[in-house]
Design brief:
elongated; 10 helices; 2 domains; mainly alpha; Arc Repressor Mutant, subunit A
């Protein structure tokens, strides 16, 4: 009779399984993003996402209870960290806000250099009219907090004399508007610079114009 105890599972088996389980939500999000970009949000089903991710539909629902939840996950993964960093940057701001505005826009340029991150605002622009829940989600997750914070920053800059007297609400639209228009021109109208989307060049050009326009008014020399 063999009294030896059964061999225990290999120590590598547990961690390997855990790594696989931990990675699976990211794989599902990757599959969803690829299909949303290729087919459109409204024409993509959870079944298709599950097949693309190599798992069952039920497994998808373990992580994301609906297709909208997948979209929420994509927005939070791509834009959430940028929005949170921007709010932290702006929230404790004191003094001249222009360097923070420049840092904020350059941070966006860096984030959008990642194709996965860039795909999310592209998706919002393309799909928002057909699927209003996309626009609402993006508003709630990103714009509802970041736009008021930027308005307060600009208003404080005006009050402190660092920025010429301007309308803070309209100024925020001028800060972010060129970036939205740049992506819109590319995605909807096919007007793209010869070297690709070139967001870094757009941001630096935008900053050169924007910062000159924000400069406080000076008395003309006599």
């Amino acid at each position: 009779m063999n009294n030896s105890t059964p061999p225990s599972p290999s120590p590598a088996a547990g961690p390997k399984f855990r790594r696989r389980a931990e990675a699976r939500p990211e794989e599902v999000l990757d599959a969803a993003l690829a299909l949303f970009v290729e087919r459109g949000y409204t024409h993509t089903t959870v079944d298709q996402i599950a097949r693309s991710a190599g798992i069952s539909k039920g497994a998808v629902y373990l992580y994301f209870p609906s297709k909208k939840a997948l979209l929420e996950g994509l927005v939070r993964r791509a834009i959430g960290p940028v929005a949170a960093f921007a709010q932290g940057l702006i929230g404790g701001a004191q003094g001249d806000p222009r360097p923070l505005i420049a840092r904020f826009l350059r941070m966006i340029a860096t984030a959008l250099s990642d194709p996965h991150t860039l795909s999310v605002p592209k998706l919002v622009i393309r799909e928002a009219m057909a699927a209003p829940e996309i626009a609402k989600l993006y508003h709630d997750e990103v714009l509802a907090s970041s736009i008021p914070a930027m308005q307060r920053l600009i208003a404080a800059g005006v009050a402190g004399g660092y920025i010429r007297p301007i309308d803070p609400e309209m100024a925020v639209r001028c800060v972010v508007g060129p970036l939205v228009a740049h992506i819109l021109l590319s995605e909807v109208f096919g007007v793209t610079p010869a070297d690709g989307l070139a967001i870094d060049r757009l941001i630096e050009t935008h900053l050169a114009i924007l910062l000159a326009g924000l400069d406080p008014e000076t008395e003309p020399s006599k």
